[in-house]
Amino acid sequence: MPTFRPILLVLGLTAGAGWSLAADMVQVPAGTYAPLSRSVKEPAEVPVAAFRLDVLPVTNAEYLAFVTAQPQWRRSRVSRLFADESYLAHWAGDLEPGPQAPADSPVVRVSWFAARAYARWAGKRLPTTAEWELAAAAGYLTPDGKNEPEFIRDLYAWLARPVPPVLPAVTGAKANLHGARGLHGLVWEWVDDFSTAMVTGESRADGGLDRDLFCGAGAAGARETSDYAAFMRQALRSSLRANNTTTSLGFRCAQDLPAVPANSAP
């Protein structure tokens, strides 16, 4: 068994509803998200309230604590309704990540259902598309990474590289302006509303769908057609089902900011 497991068993005993590590999160200030593609009836910009986001994607060590505490999410027990056949397939066993899944590498081969269950167990949630994109738009030094040559170079160098057999440690990822690390350069990441990225062709018979989402109308609504990375993320999200797992898809968690009590009158 890995040497880190006894520590994680202690963590698993204390984790659960209401538990979170806010110290390991950064605050992303409020802003706006401009969807890459939208219906002509949808707004060009979506307001995003300030929120907290994990500094790092969830690691194998952290996910081990989760499956230790929640046996139904172990590889041998999970329902195929909630995770496909490749769920944690690179792990050596149910409670043994093994050499293909180092403790400090991002966990992958996890489904949306599993990621959401982990987030709830940790007292958090998955970020929305708007939140994730707002956070990930920041460069190393400025709120808009598209204007930073080093940021753009690193982003497209990562997109061009094949997925390595063993993923690197999360702590080696560069921090962006907000202090979040590895939003680009480690793994793709689940978002809570991934299924709203695009409507599939199989759904065209649904009379309730907005026809502006299809074919030429969908392309006409696209912004910044040169943003190849954004199109890649949209294509990935639109291709996924909630029980899918892949070798390059992990996740991190988010939280709402605590409500500020109204000042009472003296």
Could you please describe the fold and organization of this structure?
There is one protein chain. This protein is an alpha+beta fold and 266 residues long. The protein has a single domain (23-254), classed as Alpha-Beta Complex (paralog of FGE (formylglycine-generating enzyme)), CATH 3.90.1580. 26% of the residues lie in helices and 8% in strands. The protein contains seven helices and seven strands, in the order H-E-E-E-E-H-H-H-H-E-H-H-E-E. The chain has helices at 5-14, 60-69, 112-121, 129-136, 149-160, 215-220, 228-239; strands at 25-28, 31-33, 46-48, 51-54, 188-189, 249-250, 254-256. A three-stranded antiparallel β-sheet has the order 1-4-7. A two-stranded antiparallel ribbon has the order 2-3. A two-stranded parallel ribbon has the order 5-6. Helix 1 packs across helix 2 (60-69). It is globular and about 45 Å long. The model is unreliable at 1-21 and 199-222 (pLDDT under 50).
Q: What's the total number of strands?
A: 7
CATH superfamily: paralog of FGE (formylglycine-generating enzyme)
Oligomer: single chain
CATH class: Alpha Beta
Distance between the termini: 60 Å
Q: Which bin fits the share of residues in helices?
A: 25-40%
Strand order of the largest sheet: 1-4-7
- What would the CATH topology be? paralog of FGE (formylglycine-generating enzyme)
Total number of helices: 7
Gyration radius, in Å: 19 Å
**Structural class of the secondary structure composition?**
alpha+beta
Are there runs of 5+ residues with pLDDT below 50, and where?
Answer: 1-21, 199-222
SSE order: HEEEEHHHHEHHEE
What is the number of domains?
1
Shape assignment: globular
Please describe the biggest sheet, giving its number of strands, its sense, and whether it closes into a barrel.
Answer: 3 strands, antiparallel
Instruction: Give the strand content.
Output: 5-15%
Mean pLDDT: 83
- CATH architecture, by name, is Alpha-Beta Complex
